[in-house]
Model the fold of this input.
Amino acid sequence: MGLNTVSPDAALSSGLEKPGGPRPKRAKVKSMGAAQSPMLGAAMFGPAILYIALLIGAPFVLAVFYAFSDARIGSNELHYVGMENFRSILQSPSFHQAVKNSIVFTVLAQIIVIVCSNILAIALEKKFRGRGLVRFLILLPWVAPVSLGTIGWKWILDSIYSVITWVLIWAHLVKPYDAPMWLGQPKLAMASVILVHCWRLIPFSTVILLAGRTAIPKEIPEAASIDGAGFWRTLFQITLPMMRPILSVALLFGTIFTFTDMTVVYILTAGGPFDSTQTLPSLAFATGIQGSDLAAGAAISLFLVPVLVVIAYLMLRLASRTEGA
Amino acid sequence: MNKVLIRRFGRGVTKTLFLLFFVVLLAFPFYWMFIAAFKQNIDLYNVENNPFIFNLKPTLDHIKLLFTETRYVRWLGNTALVGALVVLITLLLSIPAAYALARLTGRWGERIGIGIFLTYLVPPTLLFIPLSRVIAILGLQDTIWSLVLVYPSVTIPFSIWLLMGFFKSIPRELEDAAMVDGLTRFGAFVKLVVPISLSGILTVVIFTFTLVTQEFVYALTFISPESNQMVGVGIPIFLVRGDVYFWGSLMAACLIASLPIAFLYNLFLDRFIAGFTVGAVKG
Done:
């Protein structure tokens, strides 16, 4: 697990070890200590489990319940309406657009992120002067609050004062009166959302892949290069296959972070123009909270569940496979 | 021999170019915040000027405006308070739970541990609608207490997971020795295991605090009054009045709030990553 940062030796030498302690007695207690105490265990993890059950489990059940009701903000009455919410959602063009966008944004962002972060991880692997600073700068998008980073992008992509537009005009690539509206034209707005997701995820993915690269024994790629395998061959036939578990981790987390994210879309475009950048979470917010239709909002957000279940399954398989190794 | 050297040199140059490209791409928005935060408005809003440099003298006006005429300081205070309380709740619940799952429950503990880790994957965007009703019924709407209540549900699962790894790395013999000396199992946990796990606990503190500052969906949903906001929502939503963006102050606000959080998170990053990788890296 790589979490071995505790130094038990230090604790031992600081007087916890009783020199000359009776050997036989110690052996006896050892078997006692190894015995488990389920009662104490339950008392110790009970409160945390209860908290999680009440604040994750119960709301989830409530979400399912709402999805089959006519719950609205400001009304205390609830009726069972069967599949009515799902029927009307499935007929709405906004919903179709949101499903399509959620999938397109997630898939495109993951492809770009995996390619870029592999390049970055290779470039960052060897130590060099100033590596710490470079790492800090590269990590900024991930470690700074996402809503604040996104507002930075909103300024970069501003309709009048965009620096990208300024550079394009300066390079005579576009005319001032014909400048692109980065967040105002559907295709450009979609590209902008994907760009910001990639910008945020590349650092995260890079550090995960770096951890994976450093775990590969140096001898293996070296042996390959002595045997005459070039850079690309070593990369594709040795390094990447060996990194498969870690690549999966980066990919699975990246998928969750993009697919369930609302912050980037909400701040950058609020789903616009004309629903062109709407995703499932942002549509659920617009419908359920802003539009007061809790039931429909809950029903929309439930469409996130299948993807989450698949990811959870893949994660479990990954965990059990590496556990045995 | 020469060929090898040339190739190696070429590879070094390629690497440096790639690094340069990504550093510029990834850090640029923060450089851009910095420039905007100190630019005079007539410089900032003139498309004829070169936007990359200060064409006029830098100014502190935006920062003054931010601290005197907005609720920025209040938001920072709210965020710090919520952060501290959530850290406290998270520690109280996750430290004993992690120890119990690492030591006392055997094979079952392992399974429950992985189950708890999976709840970390449940996103706020799935739960914010029902939770908004729960918060309203509890009478916590529009107060920061709603966030104090809900945020631990996001931070506890990952914290338990991180701490389990820590506790497992402590040799059992240590606790056995303490129990020979007359401590109970729980006593050994409080007096021995917790103190030597301080670095793991600190990791959880930083993880929890930064997560509180980064969260957006719950804060946006539960709280509407401007004065009760957290920085993450206050800046992008309330520093914009109508359609007027005060870009200078906005960028200053982002930069000032981001950098300390980024710095803290960066210090502990390697440990968070070890938690994320679920044992896919043997370290």
